[in-house]
Write a structure and sequence with these properties.
Number of domains: 1
CATH topology: BirA Bifunctional Protein, domain 2
Protein name: DUF2461 domain-containing protein
Number of strands: 5
InterPro entries: CHP02453, UCP028451
Order of helices and strands: HHHEEEEHHHHEHHH
Shape: globular
Radius of gyration: 20 Å
Distance between the termini: 42 Å
Largest sheet: 5 strands, antiparallel
Helix content: 40-55%
Number of helices: 10
Strand order of the largest sheet: 1-2-3-4-5
Length: 226
């Protein structure tokens, strides 16, 4: 059975939407939009099925095409991309997966976009105590080949309560812990794309396993779960 795929017609539609980002055009082309949205959602659901073979996924969310323009200088009403996220299951597992389909700017991402203050402090305290396991994961050749370097916002010098000269301050400074992998339009349209996405997400597991362990234990390694 063939897996659902992203089509060139979908990318072409998104380009047209970018060029005609107004309610009149969108209303006239709503039927075509719904057809592409359905096709992309089927692709995302297939990604979820593959993820379930090697992870526990709580839910898949496909983001709405409508932009919230209340606090934005950009008042265009629609996003010129499709996107979906996949949340890992329950308190035992942490982190999530993300896919964006956009002509010339498609990518997948994974990690922790907005850890709450308790989780952020726990992660920083772990790095303060010992970051060797994290560094081993980041340095692994296969991991680095697929995901590159750790990304995310960070503070300029050191978070409050941490020594700016600490040997692991480069990791402690992070406020987000994210990895991204970009794909060309040619790669997105390939029948192999869904396999590349799944294999990339599978390769992140050592990082997720480590972070789940950190976030469900205290600094003594004792479980915080009931």
């Amino acid at each position: 059975m063939l897996q659902p795929a992203i089509t060139k017609e979908t990318l072409q539609f998104l380009n047209l939407l970018k060029e005609n980002n107004n309610r009149e055009w969108f209303t006239e082309n709503k039927k075509e939009f719904k057809a592409h949205e359905k096709q992309v959602k089927e692709f995302f659901l297939s990604v979820q099925e593959l993820l379930q073979n090697h992870d526990d996924i709580e839910k898949m969310k496909m983001f709405r095409i409508y932009r919230d323009v209340r606090f934005s200088k950009d008042k265009t009403p629609y996003k010129a991309h499709f996107a979906g996220s996949f949340s890992r299951l329950g308190a035992h597992l942490r982190g999530g997966y993300y896919i964006q389909i956009k002509p010339g700017e498609s990518f997948i991402a994974t990690g922790f976009w907005a850890p709450n203050k308790e989780d952020l402090l726990r992660i920083r305290k772990e790095f303060e105590q010992d970051a060797s396991e994290m560094r081993d994961i980041l340095a692994h050749p296969n991991f680095k080949k697929i995901w590159g370097n750790l990304e995310g916002e960070s503070v300029k010098t050191a978070p409050k309560g941490f020594d700016k000269n600490h040997e692991n301050i480069d990791l402690i400074k992070y406020k987000q812990f994210v990895f991204t992998r970009k794909f060309s339009d040619k790669e997105v349209l390939s029948t192999n794309f869904i396999k590349q996405v799944d294999e990339s997400f599978k390769a992140i597991r050592p990082y997720f396993n480590y972070m789940s362990d950190v976030l469900t234990t205290n600094l003594n390694g004792e479980s915080l779960l009931n």
